[in-house]
Amino acid sequence: MASRQVTLAEVAKHAGVSLATASRVLNGSTRQVSEELRERVVGTARELGYLPNASAQALARNSSVLVGLVVHDIADPYFSSIAAGVTRIAEDAGLVVVLGTTGRDPRREVELVNTLRAHRARAVVIAGSRTTDRYSSQRLAEEITAFTAQGGRVACVSQAKLGVDTVVPANRSGARALARQLAALGHRKFAVLGGPPDLLVARDRVAGFKAGLADAGLDLPEANIVRSGFTRDGGYAAVSDLVAAKTGATCVFVVNDVMAMGAMAALREHGLRVPEDVSVAGFDDIPTLRDLVPALSTVRLPLEDMGERAAGLVLDDVVAGPRTVRVAGEVVLRASTSSPSGTGLR
Amino acid sequence: MASRQVTLAEVAKHAGVSLATASRVLNGSTRQVSEELRERVVGTARELGYLPNASAQALARNSSVLVGLVVHDIADPYFSSIAAGVTRIAEDAGLVVVLGTTGRDPRREVELVNTLRAHRARAVVIAGSRTTDRYSSQRLAEEITAFTAQGGRVACVSQAKLGVDTVVPANRSGARALARQLAALGHRKFAVLGGPPDLLVARDRVAGFKAGLADAGLDLPEANIVRSGFTRDGGYAAVSDLVAAKTGATCVFVVNDVMAMGAMAALREHGLRVPEDVSVAGFDDIPTLRDLVPALSTVRLPLEDMGERAAGLVLDDVVAGPRTVRVAGEVVLRASTSSPSGTGLR
DNA sequence: AGCGTGTTGGAAAGCGCTTTCCACATCACT
DNA sequence: AGTGATGTGGAAAGCGCTTTCCAACACGCT
Fold first, then answer.
1. Per-residue DSSP letters for A45-64?
2. Does residue B221 share a domain with residue B238?
3. Residues B28 and B82 grouped into a single domain
4. Is the pLDDT at B4 greater than 80, yes or no?
5. Same-domain pairing of B189 and B89
6. Cis preceding linkage at B275, omega within 30
7. Coil, helix or strand for B110?
């Protein structure tokens, strides 16, 4: 069934040249080949429908054309935006993107890098926050070391924790600036939907927000921070706890947009109006946000751009040590936040 | 810099066995190896940190562990939902997903399948509608033939035009059912944002919608169909034309949700309220829809499921000819559609 | 003529693995 | 003891390509 594939050897034979010459013609070898032979080879290759065997090339060259991309969940707009950036750059460079999804399982992350290593992938971009879990971080670090030792390049989008090139969004300062602007709106009591306690992005954003409130002479009691999953459903679910906590908050900061969307849905179902009863702000500015009503205030991150930057880091030929690209966050106040009017969450 | 990798030969030597034995132990060979040797090999492999070279395996076995996934734009929720389904199934099966994006360029589609063929990918899932463009369809068909001739499997998500296994959503009947329900709501004058004229999904949906209106004794004048790109911005841009056309329509059907989201934003900017001034319905039920206000009426397609089905088609070992999996669409009426109240678009 | 230099083609040695053979033991059964 | 069947290990031949090395030749010089 599987028809025999045309090989370089056949092309060479048909063209009456050696294997070496055929190889030199059909790939960007440095060696020159006379115009006459070159044409003959190219001609027969086209005629026979020759297609190089990528596995054989990868083996012979000890390097492939593969670039790994590791995300938690490709259906999440945050990751799919980053993925769009990464694929654009990689494909423009003639490379092939391998997509791996972890489902937020750190072990799976290690597994994926391992697989990529087995494939002699040229590089890998790991998107998705690190956690405080020492064990899996350790395993991942080892796997990454092995990968780089083998000549592969690695970049992360998140915290600069792994000793590799990293694109770091301004989680702290972005959240801090947001807090200040919300305080300037007149809010005095805040609540935070803070995501999982062990997730570094979430921690950074909460810490930054707290710092921003402190700048305004405000405090964020620990009791006003509700923990939940970093997903839409996490945000949705957290609202029950939030309401039960009777914090009296007039403004809620949610550590990412996807969670914020879930939270807004839940608030609606609780009969609370945004922003009349409570203001809501998120973080990331995922593309889908612009069609939300009320439009969600947030801290804008250039997600697709961040993907491009990460891919760029990993594909250039700079040999310097771990580089860090800092990406600023821009506070965007929209309809979901207003000056406090009601009594807040009580 | 690139440290030498541990090879099977080294493992074999350290374990004091032949290359053949080592290979048999470390891969699912049918051949038996005595418990003693097996343990010795596994032990040294672990000790030395052996990782098989996937390229070499692919070459020797003449088959790889790669599965291609070709989409137009991974940042589009329609595609990222399908992608999530495909990756889930593929990764569960221990395969590796290669993501290719076309940017809606048919030539790029051909290019990607070609690359996948060069990599001896085991299968490829092509998501994204066919067009009426004969030339590029022809080229793609040839490429697919070459791919299958080589033992690869191909499945599409869209129209069953390519002679391969296909997951076909009920575009026609879904749109038809939607039209009937909208007519039952009392609407008499409709407009359609129809997407690109050469795109088959778009054509099918428009045709289905027209048929549904006909069922209700209503006509859809050609002048009430506005053409534009199949993207959010396409939907956004089309609204100007729509308004200028002064169709008097009280209800607008938009051929996909992403376009509908753009259209709703544009309608808002035109000072038109949904659904008071005009009802709007879309198609697909992308996940982000559930947080839209007003919630968009649509025809629900189980997108992630469709991705899983497509991956399933391509990974099972049925040898039967081209199969077609039909997926039903379920009309979901939400807040964006109501009985007509105003004068419509005039 | 003799020599170095540069250019171009080909033979062949890998790259790291799988898999076919073949050899040898062992075992059950005449 | 002799026969086949069965189980297990190893040698070696690929898989399709890249790249080193060498040979051949054409130059431009002295």
1. HHHHT----HHHHHHHHT--
2. yes
3. no
4. no
5. no
6. yes
7. helix
Beta bridge partners of A69: A99, A125
What residues in A contact B98, CB-CB < 8 Å?
Answer: 66, 96-99
CATH of the domain at B15: 1.10.260.40
Co-location of A91 and A126 in the same domain: yes
Alpha helices in B192-302 (DSSP H): 200-215, 232-244, 257-269
> Who's near A343: CB < 8 A, 6+ residues apart?
A248, A250
Domain that holds residue A120: 63-169+303-329
Residue type, A318: V
pLDDT in tens, B284-297: 999 999 888 889 99
Q: Which B positions 81-140 lie with beta carbon below 8 A of chain A?
A: 81, 83-84, 87-88, 91, 96-101, 114-115, 117-120
Question: Residues B37-58: what's their mean pLDDT?
Answer: 94
Residues B242 and B308 in one domain: no
Mean of pLDDT values over A270-276: 94
Does residue B339 fall inside a structural domain?
no
Q: Chain B contact for A29, CB < 8 A?
A: no
Pairing assessment for the beta strands B298-300 and B330-332 based on DSSP bridges? antiparallel
Question: B107 and B77 in contact (C-beta within 8 Å)?
Answer: no
Name the pLDDT band for B3 (thresholds 50, 70, 90). Answer: low
Half-sphere exposure of B164 (CA within 13 A, CB side): 28
Same domain, B161 and B309: yes
CATH number at residue A97: 3.40.50.2300
CB contact (8 A) between residue A51 and residue B83 = no
Q: How far is the CA of B34 from the C1' of D1 (A)?
A: 30
Q: Under 8 Å CB-to-CB from B121, ≥6 apart: which residues?
A: B64, B66, B67, B68, B98, B152
Number of folded domains that form chain B: 3
The two tokens of residue A314 are 């990993």
**Nucleotides, chain C, CB distance < 7 Å:** 7-20
Are B48 and B95 in the same domain?
Answer: no
Over residues B118-132, the mean pLDDT reads: 92
Strand order in the sheet with B96-101: A324-327, A165-169, A153-157, A123-127, A66-71, A96-101, B96-101, B66-71, B123-127, B153-157, B165-169, B324-327
Would you say residue A339 lies in a domain? no
Share of chain A above pLDDT 70, in %: 99
Q: Tell whether A39 is covered by a domain.
A: yes
Cα separation, B337 vs B276, whole angstroms: 9
B236: closest CA among B206, B280, B275?
B280
**A141 has pLDDT over 70:** yes
